[in-house]
Write a structure and sequence with these properties.
- With about 210 residues, the protein is an alpha+beta fold.
- It has a single domain, classed as Sandwich (Jelly Rolls).
- Helix content is about 25%, strand content about 25%.
- The strands form two sheets. The protein has a six-stranded antiparallel β-sheet with strand order 1-2-3-10-5-8, covered by helices on one side.
- Strand 6 and strand 7 form a beta hairpin.
- Helix 1 packs across helix 3.
Length: about 210
């Protein structure tokens, strides 16, 4: 299935610089592992960064590169894709933490028709990273919060206020804004969602029509 929604250039530049918080890095790395065009763009930006850093005096690193970012390139080189279920349907940057298959996860009920699974972070990391599984036609309101929020569709289809999203599609939102997510009426959806602060996900009282297919 063709990926049509990608991170913008500013997000990819931050990724290439290795300066993203762990929770956001996990979503970006998961997208990169299945999107050759974004992986190629990050590679190009890294080469530009190397050329610029060559002109600076070297200094020791104060922290390690987040593990999901380090794994993203290897996953893409191995040719993993959402269509190849023999390798599982969890993006490779996350399999070491939650395993390879979404169906094997110990989902926790969040609301009627909605389940979630908080993903463990490293001890020093801040923010919120979790999987959310929605039954067909269910709705969820991701309330506004401080900081950046990112999402990636892993299975099925859904729609936010602006776009229809399929596996591999990426979405972000402005700080403080609310995001209504509506799962496809036939397929439902599973998403990877990250926030720099604690997520506030609630069932939505708003009813809007989800497009067919």
């Amino acid at each position: 299935m063709r990926i049509t929604h990608h991170p913008d250039i500013s997000i990819l530049m931050t990724c290439a610089a290795g300066s993203q918080p762990e929770v956001l890095c996990a979503v970006i790395a998961s997208h990169l592992s299945v999107c050759p065009s974004c992986m190629s763009e990050v590679g190009r930006l890294e080469k530009i960064g190397v050329a610029l850093f060559d002109e600076l005096d070297p200094k020791p690193l104060t922290s390690k590169v987040p593990l999901p970012a380090a794994n993203a390139g290897d996953a893409q080189k191995k040719g993993w894709s959402y269509s190849d279920r023999s390798q599982g349907d969890v993006p490779p940057p996350l399999t070491g933490v939650i395993g390879p298959r979404l169906d094997d996860i110990d989902w926790r009920l969040l609301a009627a028709g909605v389940w979630h699974f908080p993903i463990p972070l490293s001890p020093a990391a801040k923010g919120d990273l979790r999987l959310v599984k929605m039954s067909p036609g269910s709705e969820l309101l991701n309330c506004g919060h401080k900081g950046e929020g990112l999402a990636l569709v892993l299975r099925g289809k859904c729609r936010d206020k602006l776009n229809s999203l399929c596996p591999g599609d990426f979405a972000d939102r402005e700080e403080g804004s609310d995001c209504l997510i509506v799962a496809d009426k036939a397929l439902g959806c599973t998403l990877l969602i990250a926030s720099e602060h604690e997520l506030q996900i609630v069932p939505s009282p708003i009813q809007i029509r989800c497009p067919a297919g």
